[in-house]
Specification:
14-stranded mixed sheet; two-stranded parallel sheet; 22 helices; globular
Protein backbone atom coordinates (compact mmCIF):
# COMPACT_ATOMS: atom_id res chain seq x y z
CA UNK A 1 0.00 0.00 0.00
CA UNK A 2 1.07 3.61 -0.56
CA UNK A 3 -0.39 4.85 2.71
CA UNK A 4 2.12 6.63 4.93
CA UNK A 5 0.72 5.17 8.10
CA UNK A 6 -2.23 3.33 9.56
CA UNK A 7 -3.44 3.90 13.07
CA UNK A 8 -6.52 3.49 15.22
CA UNK A 9 -9.23 6.08 14.88
CA UNK A 10 -12.43 6.66 16.83
CA UNK A 11 -14.08 3.45 17.96
CA UNK A 12 -11.09 1.41 16.88
CA UNK A 13 -11.54 2.24 13.17
CA UNK A 14 -8.31 2.15 11.20
CA UNK A 15 -7.22 5.42 9.63
CA UNK A 16 -4.71 5.81 6.82
CA UNK A 17 -2.91 8.76 5.27
CA UNK A 18 -1.93 8.93 1.62
CA UNK A 19 -0.11 11.59 -0.42
CA UNK A 20 -1.94 13.24 -3.34
CA UNK A 21 -0.87 15.98 -5.78
CA UNK A 22 -2.70 18.51 -3.57
CA UNK A 23 -1.46 17.28 -0.21
CA UNK A 24 -1.87 14.45 2.26
CA UNK A 25 -5.33 13.22 3.22
CA UNK A 26 -6.52 11.03 6.05
CA UNK A 27 -9.15 8.41 5.22
CA UNK A 28 -10.55 5.41 7.02
CA UNK A 29 -10.89 1.70 6.32
CA UNK A 30 -14.56 0.74 6.35
CA UNK A 31 -16.38 -2.58 6.26
CA UNK A 32 -18.60 -2.95 3.19
CA UNK A 33 -21.57 -5.23 2.53
CA UNK A 34 -25.33 -4.68 2.37
CA UNK A 35 -27.59 -6.63 4.74
CA UNK A 36 -29.16 -8.45 1.78
CA UNK A 37 -25.87 -9.40 0.12
CA UNK A 38 -24.53 -10.70 3.42
CA UNK A 39 -27.71 -12.69 3.98
CA UNK A 40 -27.17 -14.29 0.56
CA UNK A 41 -23.64 -15.40 1.41
CA UNK A 42 -21.59 -12.45 0.15
CA UNK A 43 -18.64 -11.79 2.43
CA UNK A 44 -17.91 -8.29 3.70
CA UNK A 45 -14.82 -6.43 2.50
CA UNK A 46 -12.61 -3.57 3.60
CA UNK A 47 -12.41 -0.42 1.46
CA UNK A 48 -10.60 2.84 2.14
CA UNK A 49 -12.95 5.84 2.23
CA UNK A 50 -11.79 9.45 1.80
CA UNK A 51 -14.77 11.78 2.18
CA UNK A 52 -15.17 15.45 1.38
CA UNK A 53 -11.86 16.13 -0.40
CA UNK A 54 -12.18 19.59 -2.01
CA UNK A 55 -11.55 19.85 -5.73
CA UNK A 56 -12.28 23.60 -5.73
CA UNK A 57 -12.29 26.48 -3.29
CA UNK A 58 -15.48 27.15 -1.35
CA UNK A 59 -17.95 29.05 -3.62
CA UNK A 60 -18.57 31.81 -1.09
CA UNK A 61 -17.96 35.55 -0.97
CA UNK A 62 -16.37 36.79 -4.18
CA UNK A 63 -16.33 33.21 -5.53
CA UNK A 64 -20.10 32.80 -5.30
CA UNK A 65 -21.64 32.73 -8.80
CA UNK A 66 -18.16 32.32 -10.31
CA UNK A 67 -16.53 29.42 -12.14
CA UNK A 68 -14.93 26.92 -9.73
CA UNK A 69 -11.40 27.79 -8.63
CA UNK A 70 -9.12 24.73 -8.24
CA UNK A 71 -8.32 24.01 -4.60
CA UNK A 72 -4.90 25.27 -3.59
CA UNK A 73 -2.48 22.65 -2.23
CA UNK A 74 -2.37 22.36 1.54
CA UNK A 75 0.29 21.64 4.13
CA UNK A 76 -0.09 18.99 6.77
CA UNK A 77 -2.77 16.31 6.71
CA UNK A 78 -6.34 17.07 5.66
CA UNK A 79 -8.99 15.01 7.42
CA UNK A 80 -11.30 13.14 5.04
CA UNK A 81 -13.14 10.80 7.39
CA UNK A 82 -16.55 12.53 7.34
CA UNK A 83 -18.93 13.63 4.58
CA UNK A 84 -18.33 17.12 3.25
CA UNK A 85 -20.78 20.01 3.22
CA UNK A 86 -23.57 19.76 0.65
CA UNK A 87 -25.05 22.46 -1.62
CA UNK A 88 -28.43 20.99 -0.66
CA UNK A 89 -29.31 22.88 2.51
CA UNK A 90 -32.65 21.28 3.31
CA UNK A 91 -33.50 17.78 2.13
CA UNK A 92 -36.87 16.91 0.61
CA UNK A 93 -38.76 14.70 3.09
CA UNK A 94 -40.54 13.07 0.10
CA UNK A 95 -37.27 12.07 -1.58
CA UNK A 96 -37.12 8.40 -2.49
CA UNK A 97 -33.33 8.22 -2.06
CA UNK A 98 -31.73 8.97 1.33
CA UNK A 99 -29.68 12.08 0.57
CA UNK A 100 -28.88 14.01 3.76
CA UNK A 101 -27.79 17.63 3.91
CA UNK A 102 -24.51 18.58 5.60
CA UNK A 103 -23.84 22.15 6.79
CA UNK A 104 -20.74 24.06 5.74
CA UNK A 105 -19.18 26.22 3.03
CA UNK A 106 -16.72 23.81 1.37
CA UNK A 107 -19.35 22.27 -0.89
CA UNK A 108 -17.22 21.53 -3.97
CA UNK A 109 -15.65 18.21 -3.07
CA UNK A 110 -15.42 14.55 -3.91
CA UNK A 111 -15.59 11.35 -1.90
CA UNK A 112 -13.29 8.54 -3.00
CA UNK A 113 -13.74 4.87 -2.06
CA UNK A 114 -11.04 2.41 -3.08
CA UNK A 115 -10.12 -1.19 -2.36
CA UNK A 116 -6.41 -0.47 -2.87
CA UNK A 117 -4.97 3.04 -2.46
CA UNK A 118 -1.73 2.14 -4.23
CA UNK A 119 -0.49 4.31 -7.11
CA UNK A 120 0.27 1.22 -9.20
CA UNK A 121 -3.11 -0.53 -8.69
CA UNK A 122 -4.52 0.87 -12.00
CA UNK A 123 -8.13 0.04 -11.13
CA UNK A 124 -11.17 1.16 -13.14
CA UNK A 125 -12.95 4.26 -11.87
CA UNK A 126 -16.66 5.11 -11.57
CA UNK A 127 -17.50 8.80 -11.12
CA UNK A 128 -21.08 9.20 -9.84
CA UNK A 129 -23.16 12.37 -10.34
CA UNK A 130 -26.26 12.38 -8.15
CA UNK A 131 -29.74 13.37 -9.26
CA UNK A 132 -32.37 15.67 -7.78
CA UNK A 133 -33.68 17.72 -10.68
CA UNK A 134 -30.59 19.98 -10.59
CA UNK A 135 -32.04 21.67 -7.49
CA UNK A 136 -31.75 19.04 -4.73
CA UNK A 137 -29.83 15.84 -4.02
CA UNK A 138 -26.67 15.02 -2.14
CA UNK A 139 -23.53 12.90 -2.59
CA UNK A 140 -23.74 12.04 1.13
CA UNK A 141 -26.28 9.27 0.53
CA UNK A 142 -25.43 6.11 2.47
CA UNK A 143 -26.23 4.20 -0.72
CA UNK A 144 -23.77 6.07 -2.92
CA UNK A 145 -21.09 5.89 -0.27
CA UNK A 146 -21.63 2.27 0.78
CA UNK A 147 -18.47 1.13 -1.00
CA UNK A 148 -19.95 -1.79 -2.95
CA UNK A 149 -18.35 -0.74 -6.23
CA UNK A 150 -14.99 -0.45 -4.48
CA UNK A 151 -15.61 -3.86 -2.90
CA UNK A 152 -15.90 -5.18 -6.44
CA UNK A 153 -12.67 -3.60 -7.66
CA UNK A 154 -13.87 -0.22 -8.96
CA UNK A 155 -12.56 3.02 -7.42
CA UNK A 156 -15.66 5.15 -6.78
CA UNK A 157 -15.78 8.97 -6.86
CA UNK A 158 -18.89 10.85 -5.68
CA UNK A 159 -19.22 14.44 -6.92
CA UNK A 160 -20.72 17.39 -5.07
CA UNK A 161 -21.76 20.29 -7.30
CA UNK A 162 -23.72 23.54 -7.04
CA UNK A 163 -27.49 23.23 -7.36
CA UNK A 164 -30.43 25.42 -8.29
CA UNK A 165 -29.99 29.03 -9.30
CA UNK A 166 -26.52 29.26 -7.76
CA UNK A 167 -25.41 26.44 -10.07
CA UNK A 168 -27.48 26.99 -13.20
CA UNK A 169 -29.31 30.34 -13.07
CA UNK A 170 -28.62 33.04 -15.64
CA UNK A 171 -26.79 36.03 -14.17
CA UNK A 172 -25.29 38.84 -16.22
CA UNK A 173 -21.58 39.39 -15.82
CA UNK A 174 -20.51 35.89 -14.74
CA UNK A 175 -19.86 32.52 -16.40
CA UNK A 176 -23.07 30.60 -16.99
CA UNK A 177 -23.50 26.87 -16.27
CA UNK A 178 -21.55 26.98 -13.04
CA UNK A 179 -22.85 23.56 -12.03
CA UNK A 180 -21.62 22.11 -15.33
CA UNK A 181 -18.26 23.75 -14.72
CA UNK A 182 -18.22 22.03 -11.33
CA UNK A 183 -18.67 18.65 -13.06
CA UNK A 184 -15.78 19.46 -15.39
CA UNK A 185 -13.58 20.61 -12.50
CA UNK A 186 -14.31 17.40 -10.59
CA UNK A 187 -13.48 15.27 -13.66
CA UNK A 188 -10.26 17.21 -14.15
CA UNK A 189 -9.43 16.56 -10.48
CA UNK A 190 -10.02 12.86 -11.10
CA UNK A 191 -7.59 12.88 -14.01
CA UNK A 192 -4.87 14.45 -11.84
CA UNK A 193 -5.54 12.72 -8.52
CA UNK A 194 -7.27 9.36 -8.89
CA UNK A 195 -3.99 7.53 -9.49
CA UNK A 196 -3.03 8.30 -5.88
CA UNK A 197 -6.09 6.29 -4.79
CA UNK A 198 -5.36 3.31 -7.01
CA UNK A 199 -7.45 4.42 -9.99
CA UNK A 200 -6.54 4.45 -13.67
CA UNK A 201 -7.39 7.88 -15.17
CA UNK A 202 -7.66 6.30 -18.62
CA UNK A 203 -10.49 4.01 -17.44
CA UNK A 204 -13.00 6.49 -16.01
CA UNK A 205 -16.71 5.79 -16.37
CA UNK A 206 -18.98 8.76 -15.65
CA UNK A 207 -22.39 7.65 -14.39
CA UNK A 208 -25.50 9.19 -12.88
CA UNK A 209 -29.23 8.86 -12.38
CA UNK A 210 -32.09 11.27 -13.15
CA UNK A 211 -30.48 14.74 -13.28
CA UNK A 212 -27.20 12.87 -12.88
CA UNK A 213 -28.06 10.81 -15.96
CA UNK A 214 -28.89 14.05 -17.76
CA UNK A 215 -25.50 15.36 -16.66
CA UNK A 216 -23.83 12.32 -18.23
CA UNK A 217 -25.50 12.94 -21.61
CA UNK A 218 -24.78 16.68 -21.37
CA UNK A 219 -21.09 15.98 -20.76
CA UNK A 220 -21.04 13.42 -23.57
CA UNK A 221 -22.19 16.15 -25.97
CA UNK A 222 -19.63 18.76 -24.85
CA UNK A 223 -16.27 19.44 -26.46
CA UNK A 224 -15.00 20.72 -23.12
CA UNK A 225 -15.45 17.25 -21.61
CA UNK A 226 -13.54 15.34 -24.30
CA UNK A 227 -10.85 13.12 -22.81
CA UNK A 228 -12.11 13.39 -19.23
CA UNK A 229 -13.86 10.00 -19.26
CA UNK A 230 -13.73 6.83 -21.34
CA UNK A 231 -17.23 5.37 -20.76
CA UNK A 232 -20.68 6.66 -19.81
CA UNK A 233 -23.75 5.22 -18.03
CA UNK A 234 -26.92 7.33 -18.01
CA UNK A 235 -29.76 6.00 -15.82
CA UNK A 236 -33.19 7.63 -16.24
CA UNK A 237 -31.57 10.68 -17.86
CA UNK A 238 -33.46 13.92 -17.23
CA UNK A 239 -31.98 16.24 -19.86
CA UNK A 240 -32.55 19.92 -19.17
CA UNK A 241 -31.05 21.61 -22.26
CA UNK A 242 -32.59 24.88 -21.04
CA UNK A 243 -32.77 27.43 -23.89
CA UNK A 244 -31.05 30.72 -23.12
CA UNK A 245 -34.36 32.60 -23.44
CA UNK A 246 -35.95 30.30 -20.85
CA UNK A 247 -33.03 30.78 -18.47
CA UNK A 248 -33.24 34.55 -18.87
CA UNK A 249 -37.01 34.58 -18.34
CA UNK A 250 -36.71 32.50 -15.16
CA UNK A 251 -33.90 34.75 -13.90
CA UNK A 252 -36.09 37.79 -14.49
CA UNK A 253 -38.98 36.24 -12.54
CA UNK A 254 -36.63 35.33 -9.71
CA UNK A 255 -35.18 38.84 -9.72
CA UNK A 256 -38.67 40.31 -9.51
CA UNK A 257 -39.50 38.09 -6.52
CA UNK A 258 -36.26 39.05 -4.79
CA UNK A 259 -36.80 42.73 -5.57
CA UNK A 260 -33.52 43.00 -7.48
CA UNK A 261 -34.63 42.79 -11.12
CA UNK A 262 -33.96 45.80 -13.33
CA UNK A 263 -37.61 46.37 -14.26
CA UNK A 264 -38.00 42.73 -15.19
CA UNK A 265 -34.47 42.33 -16.48
CA UNK A 266 -31.95 39.60 -15.67
CA UNK A 267 -30.23 40.10 -12.31
CA UNK A 268 -26.67 41.41 -12.31
CA UNK A 269 -23.82 39.92 -10.29
CA UNK A 270 -23.65 42.84 -7.88
CA UNK A 271 -27.35 42.60 -7.09
CA UNK A 272 -27.31 38.81 -6.73
CA UNK A 273 -24.48 39.09 -4.23
CA UNK A 274 -26.81 41.00 -1.96
CA UNK A 275 -29.03 37.94 -1.69
CA UNK A 276 -28.60 35.06 0.69
CA UNK A 277 -28.86 31.38 -0.13
CA UNK A 278 -32.09 31.29 1.85
CA UNK A 279 -33.55 34.18 -0.19
CA UNK A 280 -32.84 32.37 -3.44
CA UNK A 281 -34.07 29.00 -2.22
CA UNK A 282 -37.38 30.55 -1.16
CA UNK A 283 -37.92 32.39 -4.46
CA UNK A 284 -36.67 29.63 -6.76
CA UNK A 285 -39.74 27.30 -6.78
CA UNK A 286 -42.18 30.13 -7.53
CA UNK A 287 -39.96 31.51 -10.28
CA UNK A 288 -39.80 28.07 -11.86
CA UNK A 289 -43.59 27.75 -12.01
CA UNK A 290 -43.85 30.20 -14.86
CA UNK A 291 -41.73 28.05 -17.16
CA UNK A 292 -44.44 25.72 -18.46
CA UNK A 293 -48.13 25.42 -19.26
CA UNK A 294 -50.13 22.35 -20.11
CA UNK A 295 -49.12 18.71 -19.96
CA UNK A 296 -46.04 18.90 -22.21
CA UNK A 297 -44.97 22.18 -20.68
CA UNK A 298 -45.11 20.57 -17.23
CA UNK A 299 -41.92 18.78 -18.26
CA UNK A 300 -40.36 22.15 -19.09
CA UNK A 301 -41.35 23.45 -15.67
CA UNK A 302 -39.85 20.44 -13.90
CA UNK A 303 -36.56 20.99 -15.74
CA UNK A 304 -36.54 24.79 -15.99
CA UNK A 305 -33.34 24.93 -13.92
CA UNK A 306 -30.41 22.94 -15.25
CA UNK A 307 -27.67 23.08 -17.89
CA UNK A 308 -28.32 25.97 -20.28
CA UNK A 309 -27.60 25.85 -24.00
CA UNK A 310 -25.50 29.01 -23.84
CA UNK A 311 -23.68 28.59 -27.17
CA UNK A 312 -20.32 28.61 -25.41
CA UNK A 313 -19.82 25.81 -22.89
CA UNK A 314 -22.97 23.89 -23.85
CA UNK A 315 -22.80 24.81 -27.50
CA UNK A 316 -25.93 23.09 -28.80
CA UNK A 317 -28.78 20.88 -27.55
CA UNK A 318 -27.44 17.50 -26.48
CA UNK A 319 -29.22 15.34 -29.06
CA UNK A 320 -27.97 17.60 -31.85
CA UNK A 321 -24.45 17.33 -30.46
CA UNK A 322 -24.62 13.53 -30.29
CA UNK A 323 -26.01 13.30 -33.82
CA UNK A 324 -23.09 15.46 -34.98
CA UNK A 325 -20.64 12.95 -33.49
CA UNK A 326 -19.94 14.35 -30.04
CA UNK A 327 -18.94 11.55 -27.69
CA UNK A 328 -19.02 9.07 -30.57
CA UNK A 329 -15.95 7.17 -29.36
CA UNK A 330 -17.27 6.79 -25.80
CA UNK A 331 -19.24 3.57 -25.11
CA UNK A 332 -22.65 4.43 -23.61
CA UNK A 333 -25.24 2.54 -21.59
CA UNK A 334 -28.56 4.39 -21.34
CA UNK A 335 -31.87 3.26 -19.91
CA UNK A 336 -34.93 4.16 -17.90
CA UNK A 337 -37.72 2.72 -15.78
CA UNK A 338 -40.81 1.11 -17.25
CA UNK A 339 -42.99 3.80 -15.63
CA UNK A 340 -40.88 6.65 -14.27
CA UNK A 341 -43.89 8.74 -13.28
CA UNK A 342 -46.56 6.18 -12.45
CA UNK A 343 -49.89 7.43 -11.13
CA UNK A 344 -49.57 6.50 -7.46
CA UNK A 345 -50.33 8.48 -4.35
CA UNK A 346 -46.63 8.26 -3.48
CA UNK A 347 -45.53 10.11 -6.62
CA UNK A 348 -48.26 12.50 -7.77
CA UNK A 349 -48.25 16.11 -6.49
CA UNK A 350 -49.89 16.63 -3.11
CA UNK A 351 -52.76 18.60 -4.60
CA UNK A 352 -53.75 15.48 -6.58
CA UNK A 353 -53.80 13.16 -3.58
CA UNK A 354 -57.19 11.48 -3.39
CA UNK A 355 -57.96 12.26 -7.02
CA UNK A 356 -56.10 9.42 -8.72
CA UNK A 357 -59.28 7.33 -8.99
CA UNK A 358 -61.13 10.17 -10.72
CA UNK A 359 -58.23 10.69 -13.12
CA UNK A 360 -58.31 7.03 -14.10
CA UNK A 361 -61.97 7.40 -15.06
CA UNK A 362 -61.31 10.12 -17.65
CA UNK A 363 -61.10 8.75 -21.23
CA UNK A 364 -57.47 8.40 -22.24
CA UNK A 365 -57.99 10.23 -25.54
CA UNK A 366 -58.87 13.38 -23.60
CA UNK A 367 -55.45 13.41 -21.91
CA UNK A 368 -53.37 13.56 -25.07
CA UNK A 369 -55.83 15.91 -26.74
CA UNK A 370 -55.31 18.36 -23.90
CA UNK A 371 -51.58 18.02 -24.52
CA UNK A 372 -52.16 19.17 -28.12
CA UNK A 373 -51.06 15.83 -29.56
CA UNK A 374 -52.52 15.42 -33.06
CA UNK A 375 -55.15 12.76 -33.64
CA UNK A 376 -52.95 10.40 -35.66
CA UNK A 377 -50.17 10.46 -33.05
CA UNK A 378 -52.78 10.01 -30.30
CA UNK A 379 -54.15 6.89 -31.93
CA UNK A 380 -50.68 5.45 -32.55
CA UNK A 381 -49.49 6.19 -29.01
CA UNK A 382 -52.60 4.67 -27.39
CA UNK A 383 -52.19 1.59 -29.59
CA UNK A 384 -48.53 1.28 -28.54
CA UNK A 385 -49.41 1.68 -24.84
CA UNK A 386 -52.57 -0.36 -24.27
CA UNK A 387 -51.82 -1.04 -20.60
CA UNK A 388 -51.61 2.67 -19.76
CA UNK A 389 -54.62 3.48 -21.93
CA UNK A 390 -56.74 0.88 -20.15
CA UNK A 391 -55.78 2.38 -16.80
CA UNK A 392 -57.30 5.73 -17.77
CA UNK A 393 -56.31 9.33 -18.37
CA UNK A 394 -54.06 9.77 -15.36
CA UNK A 395 -51.99 6.69 -16.11
CA UNK A 396 -51.67 7.64 -19.77
CA UNK A 397 -50.62 11.18 -18.83
CA UNK A 398 -47.90 9.81 -16.56
CA UNK A 399 -46.74 7.37 -19.26
CA UNK A 400 -46.66 10.22 -21.76
CA UNK A 401 -44.56 12.43 -19.50
CA UNK A 402 -42.30 9.47 -18.67
CA UNK A 403 -41.69 8.86 -22.35
CA UNK A 404 -41.26 12.52 -23.25
CA UNK A 405 -38.63 13.07 -20.54
CA UNK A 406 -36.99 9.69 -19.97
CA UNK A 407 -37.87 7.04 -22.57
CA UNK A 408 -37.48 9.61 -25.31
CA UNK A 409 -33.99 10.46 -24.05
CA UNK A 410 -33.02 6.78 -24.18
CA UNK A 411 -34.25 6.30 -27.75
CA UNK A 412 -33.10 9.77 -28.81
CA UNK A 413 -29.54 9.19 -27.63
CA UNK A 414 -29.39 5.77 -29.28
CA UNK A 415 -30.77 7.14 -32.55
CA UNK A 416 -28.45 10.16 -32.49
CA UNK A 417 -25.38 7.99 -32.03
CA UNK A 418 -26.67 5.62 -34.71
CA UNK A 419 -26.93 8.59 -37.09
CA UNK A 420 -23.46 9.87 -36.20
CA UNK A 421 -21.86 6.50 -36.89
CA UNK A 422 -23.50 6.04 -40.32
CA UNK A 423 -20.64 5.80 -42.85
CA UNK A 424 -22.35 8.08 -45.38
CA UNK A 425 -22.98 10.73 -42.72
CA UNK A 426 -19.38 10.53 -41.53
CA UNK A 427 -18.12 10.79 -45.11
CA UNK A 428 -20.25 13.87 -45.82
CA UNK A 429 -19.20 15.59 -42.61
CA UNK A 430 -15.56 14.79 -43.36
CA UNK A 431 -15.81 16.50 -46.77
CA UNK A 432 -17.55 19.51 -45.18
CA UNK A 433 -15.05 19.85 -42.31
CA UNK A 434 -13.31 23.25 -42.11
CA UNK A 435 -9.89 21.64 -41.43
CA UNK A 436 -8.10 20.75 -44.69
CA UNK A 437 -6.16 17.98 -42.94
CA UNK A 438 -9.43 16.33 -41.96
CA UNK A 439 -10.84 16.67 -45.48
CA UNK A 440 -7.66 15.09 -46.84
CA UNK A 441 -7.91 12.16 -44.44
CA UNK A 442 -4.67 13.10 -42.65
CA UNK A 443 -6.43 13.57 -39.31
CA UNK A 444 -9.61 12.02 -37.92
CA UNK A 445 -11.18 13.98 -35.04
CA UNK A 446 -13.08 12.06 -32.39
CA UNK A 447 -16.45 13.26 -33.68
CA UNK A 448 -15.73 11.63 -37.06
CA UNK A 449 -14.19 8.41 -35.78
CA UNK A 450 -16.01 5.11 -35.98
CA UNK A 451 -18.61 5.12 -33.23
CA UNK A 452 -18.44 3.11 -30.02
CA UNK A 453 -21.26 0.83 -28.95
CA UNK A 454 -24.52 1.95 -27.35
CA UNK A 455 -26.50 -0.34 -25.03
CA UNK A 456 -30.10 0.29 -23.90
CA UNK A 457 -32.09 -1.12 -21.02
CA UNK A 458 -35.54 -0.87 -19.45
CA UNK A 459 -36.04 -1.59 -15.74
CA UNK A 460 -39.31 -3.51 -15.31
CA UNK A 461 -39.32 -4.86 -11.75
CA UNK A 462 -42.31 -3.37 -9.94
CA UNK A 463 -41.77 -2.24 -6.36
CA UNK A 464 -44.56 -3.51 -4.09
CA UNK A 465 -44.32 -0.35 -1.99
CA UNK A 466 -44.44 2.06 -4.96
CA UNK A 467 -46.90 0.27 -7.21
CA UNK A 468 -44.60 -0.05 -10.20
CA UNK A 469 -41.16 0.23 -11.76
CA UNK A 470 -41.01 3.93 -10.99
CA UNK A 471 -38.37 6.63 -10.71
CA UNK A 472 -35.49 5.80 -8.32
CA UNK A 473 -36.53 2.18 -7.65
CA UNK A 474 -33.43 0.99 -9.53
CA UNK A 475 -30.93 2.90 -7.37
CA UNK A 476 -30.64 0.51 -4.39
CA UNK A 477 -30.18 -2.32 -6.90
CA UNK A 478 -27.44 -0.41 -8.72
CA UNK A 479 -25.55 0.15 -5.47
CA UNK A 480 -26.27 -3.33 -4.08
CA UNK A 481 -27.90 -1.63 -1.10
CA UNK A 482 -30.90 -3.86 -0.41
CA UNK A 483 -31.89 -4.65 3.13
CA UNK A 484 -31.46 -1.37 4.96
CA UNK A 485 -34.42 0.64 6.23
CA UNK A 486 -34.37 3.12 3.34
CA UNK A 487 -34.32 0.37 0.74
CA UNK A 488 -37.08 -1.54 2.49
CA UNK A 489 -39.25 1.58 2.33
CA UNK A 490 -38.63 2.01 -1.41
CA UNK A 491 -38.58 -1.58 -2.70
CA UNK A 492 -39.94 -3.73 0.13
CA UNK A 493 -38.31 -6.26 2.41
CA UNK A 494 -38.34 -9.07 -0.16
CA UNK A 495 -36.67 -7.29 -3.08
CA UNK A 496 -34.68 -9.86 -5.10
CA UNK A 497 -30.96 -9.87 -4.39
CA UNK A 498 -30.49 -11.63 -7.73
CA UNK A 499 -31.71 -8.46 -9.47
CA UNK A 500 -29.23 -6.37 -7.49
CA UNK A 501 -26.53 -8.80 -8.59
CA UNK A 502 -27.62 -8.33 -12.21
CA UNK A 503 -27.85 -4.51 -12.19
CA UNK A 504 -24.81 -3.84 -10.02
CA UNK A 505 -22.88 -6.58 -11.81
CA UNK A 506 -23.60 -5.04 -15.23
CA UNK A 507 -22.30 -1.67 -14.03
CA UNK A 508 -19.14 -3.26 -12.61
CA UNK A 509 -18.58 -5.20 -15.83
CA UNK A 510 -19.03 -2.05 -17.92
CA UNK A 511 -16.69 0.04 -15.76
CA UNK A 512 -14.12 -2.77 -15.78
CA UNK A 513 -14.25 -4.08 -19.34
CA UNK A 514 -16.53 -1.78 -21.34
CA UNK A 515 -19.36 -4.29 -21.90
CA UNK A 516 -22.44 -4.61 -19.62
CA UNK A 517 -23.17 -8.11 -20.91
CA UNK A 518 -26.00 -7.91 -23.45
CA UNK A 519 -26.51 -7.19 -27.14
CA UNK A 520 -25.83 -3.55 -27.99
CA UNK A 521 -28.40 -1.35 -29.71
CA UNK A 522 -25.66 -0.36 -32.16
CA UNK A 523 -25.54 -3.97 -33.44
CA UNK A 524 -29.32 -4.42 -33.51
CA UNK A 525 -31.27 -1.12 -33.30
CA UNK A 526 -34.03 -1.45 -30.74
CA UNK A 527 -32.32 -4.20 -28.70
CA UNK A 528 -33.10 -3.49 -25.04
CA UNK A 529 -32.05 -5.37 -21.93
CA UNK A 530 -35.09 -5.90 -19.68
CA UNK A 531 -33.84 -5.60 -16.11
CA UNK A 532 -36.21 -7.23 -13.68
CA UNK A 533 -37.50 -9.83 -16.09
CA UNK A 534 -38.04 -13.36 -14.80
CA UNK A 535 -34.48 -14.27 -15.75
CA UNK A 536 -33.14 -11.73 -13.22
CA UNK A 537 -35.48 -12.69 -10.41
CA UNK A 538 -34.47 -16.35 -10.65
CA UNK A 539 -30.81 -15.51 -11.36
CA UNK A 540 -30.85 -16.99 -14.87
CA UNK A 541 -27.42 -16.29 -16.41
CA UNK A 542 -29.01 -15.56 -19.82
CA UNK A 543 -30.21 -11.91 -19.83
CA UNK A 544 -33.60 -11.05 -21.33
CA UNK A 545 -33.26 -8.78 -24.36
CA UNK A 546 -36.33 -7.38 -26.12
CA UNK A 547 -35.57 -6.61 -29.80
CA UNK A 548 -37.92 -3.61 -29.63
CA UNK A 549 -37.95 -2.73 -25.95
CA UNK A 550 -38.73 0.96 -26.42
CA UNK A 551 -41.09 0.68 -29.42
CA UNK A 552 -43.88 2.27 -27.38
CA UNK A 553 -42.07 5.64 -27.72
CA UNK A 554 -41.95 5.44 -31.54
CA UNK A 555 -45.13 7.51 -32.18
CA UNK A 556 -43.73 10.38 -30.11
CA UNK A 557 -40.35 10.14 -31.86
CA UNK A 558 -42.04 10.21 -35.28
CA UNK A 559 -44.12 13.25 -34.28
CA UNK A 560 -41.07 15.11 -32.96
CA UNK A 561 -42.52 15.18 -29.42
CA UNK A 562 -39.79 13.02 -27.91
CA UNK A 563 -37.04 13.32 -27.01
CA UNK A 564 -38.19 16.44 -25.21
CA UNK A 565 -37.39 19.77 -26.84
CA UNK A 566 -37.85 22.60 -24.34
CA UNK A 567 -40.22 25.28 -25.61
CA UNK A 568 -38.83 28.79 -25.90
CA UNK A 569 -40.95 31.33 -23.97
CA UNK A 570 -41.92 34.84 -24.91
CA UNK A 571 -40.15 37.76 -23.26
CA UNK A 572 -42.22 37.57 -20.06
CA UNK A 573 -43.90 34.14 -20.19
Amino acid sequence: MSSERTDAGAGGARDLVIPTPSGRVRGRWETVGSPSSRAHGRETAQVAAFRGIPYAEAPTGARRFRAPVPKAPWDGIRDATANGATPQRIGDPRALIPEPSVDGDDTLHVTVLTPDPSPDANLPVLVWIHGGGYTTGSPASPWYGNGTFARDGVVTVLVSYRLGFDGFGWIEGVPQNRGVRDWLAALEWVQRHVGAFGGDPSRVTVAGQSAGGGAVLTLLGMRAAEGLFARAWAASPALADVPEQTARALAARLGDRLGIGAHGGVPLLETMRRTTERDVLRAQPKARRGAGRGLYRLADELLAIGPVVDGELVERPTMEALAAGAGATVPLVVGAMHDELALTEALVPRWLHGATGALRAIPSSVTLGAAHVDAATRRAYVAANPDAARAGAGALACRYLSDVIFGGAVVGAAHAREHASDPSVRARRTLEHPDAAVRAGERVPAALAEGADTWAYRFDWASPTRGGAVHCVDVPFAFDALGDAHADHLVGVDAPQSLADAVHGAMVAFATGGDPGWQPWSDEPGATRILGAASDVVADPAPTVDPAGWSRVAPLITAGIAPRRPRVPGPRS
